[in-house]
Amino acid sequence: MQLHHVRVHRSEENLAREDQLAWKIAACAADPVAVTDDVTEMIINRVIDNASVAAASLTRKPVTAARSQALAHPRSNGGEGSTVFGLVPGRRVSPEWAAWANGVAVRELDYHDTFLAAEYSHPGDNIPPILAVAQHLATAKGLTGRDLVRGIATGYEIQIDLVKSISLHAHKIDHVAHLGPSAAAGIGTLLGLDKEIIFQAVGQALHTTTATRQSRKGEISSWKSHAPAFAGKMAVEAVDRALRGETSPTPIYEGEDGVIAWLLDGPGHTYDVSLPQAGSAKRAILDSYTKEHSAEYQAQAWIDLARRLHRAHPELVDGTNIASVVIHTSHHTHYVIGSGANDPQKYDPTASRETLDHSIPYIFTVALQDGSWHHVDSYSPERAGRADTVALWNKVTTTEDKEWTRRYHSLDVTEKAFGGRVVITLTDGRTITDEIAVADAHPLGAKPFGRAEYVNKFRMLAADVLEGSEIERFLTLAERLPELTAVDLGQLTITARPGLLPTTGAPMGIF
């Protein structure tokens, strides 16, 4: 890895293009280095993982709306169009709209992979836009599965490297501002574009995807699932414009009126961003981790701990036995999904699913009472409104523990942690204390996810929406990802069982 120092430059300093972060990202994307076998295997896992969560969300309202928008934009010129999750492979739409519809499907349940450091991210959000472009141009450009693997490896690398180095949330900027550049870079790698074109696309993608974090605050709306899809769509459009010779605001990161100067830490601050040196493999995907449960990543370990406590202490199932529950955890967990957020909606039984997904008091309560977690049932209005659940829920609070905050931000993967310690005080005066560092599915957890677990997750989530033959067809294709031909790439999607999608309706808008 090579460390790059990034700061604001006054206009008269005339920062050379080769010294700008966007150019260094472009150079990394244009480097023709091979993808290692272990990275290729993990990319296959994440393609399966994305399809899993997309399948489970096919009938949900935001996904239905995004799909209907995509269908209003049929195959565009210059290629064969791109597939949309749920539809037959022959039904093609314009690639930017496929990136939109599929991106919403992947993110809707908050159930795919994650990487957390200085910033937060779901790097699997890179896959829909890169795959959409691959399908659209597969025949015209002679693209193969190996090209797609290279593009995805770049998308993960750039996003994770930015997430390690540049905090957006500290300035209330949504984390998808790192996704626009990474997806644009990934598309550049996929298509074998030169550095100049990728540079312009990265700048445009960043410029158009900076937005506030209000989409993840208070009464959280369905835009939470649309935000990364929008970034992916903007990345596709940015590459298209750059290919046509159009340019971007420059320098986009370091400029006097650029992103760092006015949206982030401002003049005088330096960011240290590490990117792979020329000729070095892009391996960042191996630092990321997927979810066993449909909930904010910081809730994963807490669900596992709650399930463990449910089994070990049956008396905790009856909330009248509990006087208080205090969760000692990291700054992020406390202030974003805990009681430190000061969001009354996090204790509201009528709150949206998106809000409950970001409420650790709710999630811990339900997992403790049920000893399990379900991506639909655990969020149902009936489940959230249960009187005994509401009573216990209001006894659960969080507090920041400096040591867990330090471990959260540690760059040492052996001590980096997303859990904490819980202290449960019973009405009889006894206390039960337990702790967990990482989720069971984490690479260092009790039951790390491997290929078998990714496949099982797909089978479980797809069982009610895909026919058995379709499940097997997709898995067989996905597991051959590097070997896929241009024709095969067009089949890398999932088709809902007959009659399922018409039941969801097609909401009308402008298109």
TrEMBL record:
Top-level EC class, please?
A: lyase
* EC number assigned by the record: 4.2.1.79
Q: Does the keyword Lyase apply?
A: yes
A Pfam match: MmgE_PrpD_N
Keywords in alphabetical order, please.
Lyase
The question of whether Lyase is a record keyword is answered with: yes
Please give the InterPro entries that the UniProt record associates with this protein.
MmgE/PrpD_sf (IPR036148), MmgE/PrpD_sf_1 (IPR042183), MmgE/PrpD_sf_2 (IPR042188), MmgE_PrpD (IPR005656), MmgE_PrpD_C (IPR045337), MmgE_PrpD_N (IPR045336)
Q: Tell me where on the tree of life, at the top rank, the source sits.
A: Bacteria
What are the recorded GO MF terms, alphabetically?
2-methylcitrate dehydratase activity
All copies of the MmgE/PrpD C-terminal domain together span: 293-480
Give the reaction(s) catalysed. Answer: (2S,3S)-2-methylcitrate = 2-methyl-cis-aconitate + H2O
Q: Which PANTHER family match?
A: 2-METHYLCITRATE DEHYDRATASE, 2-METHYLCITRATE DEHYDRATASE-RELATED
Quaternary structure?
Monomer.
Q: Which family does it belong to?
A: Belongs to the PrpD family.
Q: Output this protein's name.
A: 2-methylcitrate dehydratase
The organism is: Cryobacterium roopkundense
